[in-house]
Amino acid sequence: MSGASASFSACPACSAAPSAVDIAARTAQKDANLALSVPGIHCAACISTVERCLSKVDGVKSARVNLTLKRATVEAAADVTAAMLVEALSEVGFEAHELDAGALSATSTDKAARELLMRLAVAGFASMNVMLLSVAVWAGAADATRDMFHWISAAITLPTVIFSGQPFYRSAWGALRAGRLNMDVPITLAILLAVATSLWETALSGEHAYFDAALTLTFFLLAGRYLDHRTRAVARSAAEELAALEVPRAIVWQDGQERELRTAELRVGDIIVVRAGGRMPVDGVIVEGTSELDRSLLTGESLPVFAEVGQAVSAGEVNLTGLLKVEASAVGEETSLHRMADLVAIAESGRSKYTSLADAAAKLYAPGVHILSALAFLGWLVYSGDMRVALNIAAAVLIITCPCALGLAVPAVTTAASGRLFRAGMLIKHSTALERLAQVDTVVFDKTGTLTRGTPELSNFADVSAEDLAMAYGLAEGSSHPLSRAIVAAAKDAGVAAAPVQDVSEVAGYGTKGTLHGQELRFGRASWTGATAGEGTAAWLKLGDAEPVTFAFNDSLREGAAQAVRSLQAAGKHVCLMSGDNEGAVKAMAMRLGIEDWTAEALPAEKAARIQQMSAEGHKVLMVGDGLNDTAALTAAHVSISPASALDAARVASDIVLLGADLSPIPAAMTTASKAVKRIKENFRIATLYNVIAVPLAVAGLATPLIAAVAMSTSSITVSLNALRLRGAGK
To answer: Which residues touch 283 (CB under 8 Å, ≥6 apart)?
Structure first.
């Protein structure tokens, strides 16, 4: 063998095993899993465009978009970076930000739903088979035949209740360890006592066994538990989502050159380089460069702000136009973005203190059933002196007062109501959201991105000549600035062609300039174009020595915003506007919508504090918001709603997601929630009435397995049918 040497191993296993070099090579070639937040996707066409764009990047093996989370996950070669993917998406018009994949918990599969469904299927199959055997016993099977059917039923029931009843057993044990009672304690006791007494009766060749009742009870309750689970969207903690938005890597200026470091390695005093389009990884002060900053996700300000040397910046802000060097003053857990995550976590823990109607019913129901069963046992033991009779009747009381109807009372209604709201364009995420929404008396709206679309539009179109619009278009078409995009949109709508502007360049923080017919053409800030700034949002166009032309802008209202505010006020709700935007913009929006109570320039902590103050005064607050600056307020509110276009963190923090762009379904959702709570309370009354009729039969010793099975099924079906009335209500 020329030019090569071969080595042989005497051991075949060693020959087959990979060498250290092979392992190192495979490790080096290991695929990278990258996650991007893509807030601009909203439909199937967006999904296909983003996936196709990402797939074209060299080294990308697969790209998948989750529309609900507005997130793209990419599997690529190790040399593919998030910056390459972000740049590729920007070329097709999509803003993207890198997420720290390590900070996101895996939620690709809903294991809890699969587990419940599997246990439900097993319980259903077993209960059908045992019911068939029970029918034979009820029809008159006696002696050895009856005993055989009972033993077969026992063989089916024992493994089934051990497997299918585990969700109730775990919950009951957890409650007892904490020294309290919940609905699962009597459920567990009823199942176990029914099986134990049935085994005892079968061993003694008794006439009655409750194997079928134990399985039917397990099946109906698992059905309720599964319905309850399916009404909620599976979502992570909003605090985790905020943490994932923190920039995972940063460029540091050290010894006259750039070095890329993990954000966790940054220290106070480091000089951070933030290029145009990059997100701030730290809090700090600008020491070099001018630019404009997009603070909309953090503060709600609808327009970029000028950034220059000496200005403070916060983690999470986006640098729009020029390169900046920032001296870090706070890193890691000390940044404003991380403190906002802490605010959200605190607010989430406060909301968890809400007691649902089902839990409130359980507090009364669980001890009541236990006391009643114990009294029945003691009474019959004293009366008959027969332990076996007394235990059978105590078990019958537990079974016939089974919480099937109570277990279905809430999930049956919430499933029907959630289906109705979903058809209207609203997704219910939290199990108690409907109950809390029905109690609301105060509604707080964010402005930018919630009441408005978050994108400026040209408002003085009639005052601008076609020639001026064409010149502005010629400068704006190459810029990604929000006002430039508004100019491009207005010109295209008017059918105006761009003027042949040459030498176009963007001056960071000031505007765009070029040359037209030998004269300098500028479009940007008042001070840069020689104009005098007034109130409101505007930019100025100046050609040579001519007077500057004003282009005024306002934020376009979201569809249905005015109707939603009017409907809420007509229903007697107090409506507030709370925004981080400047006073002029917020005041103008409040007057436009007829909102008297408004607050401008509110920081995230101030929003949350204001809502907590309202709650302390006895108000039930609904918060509607979409940005990072709203997440703490969303979680502090009694109940919260965010649009589907909201940032991931805001959408995760909310209880309800508005799937469309229209806000008008919000008042209708509150009406549906009130009707749902009414149906839930009716179901509780039905369950109570059922117990009033059934309990005397059980205590009197008349509750045979047949009566128990019929009673349980009747109550459960009645509750479910009452819940279905919501589907057609109010059409």
So the answer is: 312, 313, 314, 315, 328, 329, 330, 331, 334, 335, 336
- What tokens does 494 get? 């008017």
Sheet-wide strand order for 71-76:
60-66, 71-76, 32-37, 97-99
CB 70 within 8 A of CB 47: no
Token pair, residue 657, equals: 């997601």
- The phi and psi torsions of 96 (rounded to 5 degrees) equal -145, 150
Q: How confident is the model at residue 465 (pLDDT cuts 50, 70, 90)?
A: very high
Is 630 annotated as catalytic?
no
Of 491, 484, 547, give the one whose Cα is nearest residue 510. 484
The secondary structure of 353-387 as a DSSP string is TPPPHHHHHHHHHHHHHHHHHHHHHHHHHHHH--H
Lowest mean pLDDT among 78-82, 238-242, 316-320, 649-653: 238-242
Is the torsion defined by CA of 189, 190, 193, 196 positive or negative? negative
Q: Could you report the per-residue pLDDT of 535-581, keeping only the tens digit for each?
A: 777 899 999 989 999 998 887 788 899 999 999 999 999 999 998 87
The torsion of the CA quartet 68, 579, 672, 114, rounded to 10 degrees, works out to 30
Helix (H, G, I), strand (E, B) or coil at 79: coil
Please, what are the domains in the chain?
Answer: 26-99 (3.30.70.100), 111-230+357-413+679-728 (no CATH), 247-334 (2.70.150.10), 416-452+560-673 (3.40.50.1000), 454-557 (3.40.1110.10)
Please pick, among 212, 228, 446, 648, the residue that the annotation labels catalytic: 446
- pLDDT, position 500: 92
Determine how many CB atoms are found less than 10 A away from the CB of residue 309: 12
Share of the chain above pLDDT 70, in %: 81
Type of residue found at 411: P
Question: How many C-beta neighbours within 10 Å does residue 677 have?
Answer: 20
Cα 444 from Cα 606, distance rounded (Å): 13
Contact yes or no for 334/313 (Cβ under 8 A): no
Q: How far apart are CA 273 and CA 62, in angstroms?
A: 31
169-178 pLDDT, tens digit each: 888 888 788 7
Question: Number of helices (H) and strands (E), helices first, in the chain?
Answer: 26, 26
pLDDT of amino acid 300? 55
Q: How far is 669 from 672, CA to CA, in rounded Å?
A: 5
Q: What is the DSSP string of 222-290?
A: HHHHHHHHHTS-----HHHHHHHHS-SEEEEEETTEEEEEEGGG--TT-EEEE-TTPBP-SEEEEEE--
Tokens representing 410 are 């809430």
| Rounded-to-integer distance, Cα 601 and Cα 613, Å | 18
The predicted-structure confidence for 263-296, as pLDDT tens digits, reads as follows: 778 889 999 999 887 788 888 999 999 888 877 6
Q: For the chain, what percentages of helix, strand and coil (3-state, to nearest 5) are there? A: 55, 20, 30
**What per-residue confidence (pLDDT) applies to 519?**
92
Cα-based distances in Å from 397 to 157, 186, 203, 237, 258: 20, 11, 22, 42, 76
